[in-house]
Write a structure and sequence with these properties.
Chain lengths: 279, 310
């Protein structure tokens, strides 16, 4: 029987660590008074698992030569990444409050030049995969053994450049490359299938030459298992379809287009969101 | 010029494992020897310029120096955002080797003619824009700037151009001067138009009109300050470029004139027209149509000088 991952993603109960990370996201959102909340909350468990137990990385040495590379191609999900980076000590949690300030390291999209730990600046969609393919190829050419992970939004897959990249990743048999799709099934204007139907998403990636697995993108155990599989350098690249919920963990933001991106957010709006996280 | 450039990349790659060549379906036989000898440094990717530029950025971020070659319009128009964000924002040493500069691909129509490439590339922060005049200058450029940390856009001519820069043995970013310091006319030009402008110089010398040609290989910085005395002595300054009127060499010239407070009343331009051409034919036909052949430039200069006298 095929699991109903949409249902599983909706029903899973978040642990305290996931709640704490969401409170960090709200710190930044309150400080900036704006931001992409929903997109950050759908991918936060994926990034948490990557930094907690998958990636080889060192917050004291963000450019560690043999680190695994992680590109957040879906740059607008950066509040989730900032929360995890702060939690790991790349920045202090107090810096989150400065989100989007003129001199902040934390912009509305992540930048390599300003924030140590950001592998590549993203924001305009459909760029991360090809850059990640270049990095994975560089790793092969240098005879090194780190891995490359690229996290892509489902709405982002509207961009054709992703599919150019997918074909080439497969052509080069870049087994050390893992693509994770944050499949929250929503984009800025509504449900993805009402805008541009991605079904059958797994079969699409399979037909492009990827090993494809499907997970509940909020399930820590499943994510760890699928992100940590050892990969042969010359083999099919891997695509993980992570079913998630946009706005997961804050009821009023869940599956909401209003909280896709919001500006002029007041403290009064943030307070009830904090309560919802704690519930 | 293209052949020399690609062979130079191959030669450089033999000595430097950081150098990789990337093409997007450039046709059978392209750098076949490199493909066989250095397969790890040779990538013939699909028809996918957006991907190819991003791929090059990823390689460059990890220490490689990718040289991408395809038709200039595809590098500038098709993948403009990848060039801007993936390469230029990260200031990565990717080399964009643009085949078919200007109207080289005239018979293929307006989708293939690179008439606004300078404008697009000069507008991108960190990007260095070059237009060599011949194969000698191209080779010198490629060999000399391997370790330059900026991204480069390099416009190719058609190939088979006469070698006109061989008196300049050493590579230099500053414009090359052909002529004296006290000529009546100064022509600023770039790329293969240097060839035509040197013929203009010969034509007019027979009519006792002295011309100095200044060839700007590197379009970002014309070092105009050093030409202030020469310009002050001249009657007329003409900018000649195979590019739409705005955003290219003439625009750079105007900016530096303003910066150095150089009068612009005697500054004129001959360029491609400001519209898309729907004619085909050859590059020579298009240069002729736009008044960019040596006889037409010479004649234009004579009439400008006459009207100046009046």
């Amino acid at each position: 029987m095929i699991a109903d991952y949409t249902k599983l993603a909706n029903e899973i109960i978040l642990d305290q660590r996931s709640k704490d990370l969401r409170l960090l996201v709200l710190e930044a959102l309150e400080g900036g008074g704006r931001g992409h909340l929903g997109p950050a909350l759908s991918l936060i468990e994926i990034i948490r698992v990557l930094y907690d137990s998958v990636l080889s990385h060192d917050p004291r040495n963000p450019l560690l030569a043999q680190r695994d590379r992680f590109i957040l191609s879906k740059g607008h999900g950066c509040l989730g990444l900032y929360a995890v980076l702060a939690d790991h000590g790349y920045i202090s949690t107090s810096e989150l409050k400065g989100y989007c300030d003129f001199e902040s390291k934390l912009g509305g999209h992540p930048e390599r030049a300003t924030l140590p730990g950001i592998e590549f600046s993203t924001g305009s969609l459909g760029h991360g995969l090809s850059v990640g393919i270049g990095m994975a190829m560089a790793c092969r050419l240098k005879g090194e053994h780190w891995r490359t992970f690229v996290l892509i939004g489902d709405g982002e897959l509207n961009e054709g450049s992703n599919w150019e990249g997918a074909m080439h990743a497969s052509q080069h048999q870049l087994g050390a490359l893992t693509v994770i799709i944050d499949f929250n099934q929503m984009q800025a204007s509504g449900e993805i299938n009402s805008i541009l139907n991605l079904d059958p998403i797994g079969a699409k990636w399979k037909s492009f030459g990827f090993d494809v697995v499907t997970v509940n993108g909020h399930d820590i155990v499943q994510l760890e298992k699928e992100l940590n599989t050892s990969r042969n350098s010359y083999s099919k690249p891997k695509a993980i379809i992570a079913y998630t919920v946009k706005g997961k963990g804050i009821i009023s933001a869940e599956n909401s287009t209003i909280w896709h991106h919001k500006a002029k957010i007041t403290r009064e709006e943030i307070a009830p969101l904090r309560l919802e996280v704690s519930q | 010029m293209r052949q020399k450039a690609l062979l130079t990349v191959y030669e450089l790659a033999k000595q430097d494992p950081r150098i990789v060549f990337i093409g997007s379906d450039l046709g059978a036989g392209t750098l076949q020897d490199m493909k066989e000898e250095l397969p790890q440094q040779f990538f013939m990717e699909g028809i996918s310029e957006q991907h190819v530029v991003g791929f090059a950025a990823g390689l460059a971020q990890e220490g490689f120096i990718p040289y991408i070659n395809t038709i200039g319009t595809f590098l500038t128009r098709r993948s403009f955002e990848q060039v801007t964000i993936d390469i230029a924002l990260h200031n990565l040493p990717v080399r964009l080797l643009a085949s078919g500069g200007g109207t080289v691909y005239a018979p293929l129509g307006p989708t293939h003619t690179a008439i606004e490439d300078f404008s697009l590339m000069l507008s991108v922060p960190n990007m260095k824009v070059f237009a060599p005049a011949d194969a000698h200058e191209m080779e010198n450029l490629l060999r000399s700037l391997v370790n330059d940390s900026n991204p480069h856009y390099i416009r190719f001519g058609k190939g088979g151009e006469n070698i006109v820069t061989d008196e300049f043995l050493e590579f230099g970013m500053k414009p090359k001067v052909f002529g004296e310091n006290n000529s009546k006319v100064i022509i600023f030009t770039t790329g293969i138009m240097l060839q035509h402008c040197l013929i203009v110089r010969e034509i007019l010398s027979k009519k006792a009109i002295t011309v100095t040609v200044i060839h700007c290989l590197y379009l970002n910085d014309l070092s105009l300050r050093s030409f202030i005395p020469m310009m002050a002595l001249s009657n007329l300054v003409l900018c000649v470029e195979e590019h739409v009127p705005r955003g290219g060499l003439f625009t750079q010239l105007i900016h530096e004139c303003v910066e150095f407070q150089i009068p612009t009343s005697n500054l004129h331009q001959v360029s491609l027209k400001r519209f898309f051409s729907h004619n085909y034919g050859s590059q020579a036909d298009h240069l002729d149509f736009n008044g960019l052949t040596a006889p037409k430039i010479a004649s234009h200069l004579e009439s400008l000088l006459e009207s100046n006298i009046r």
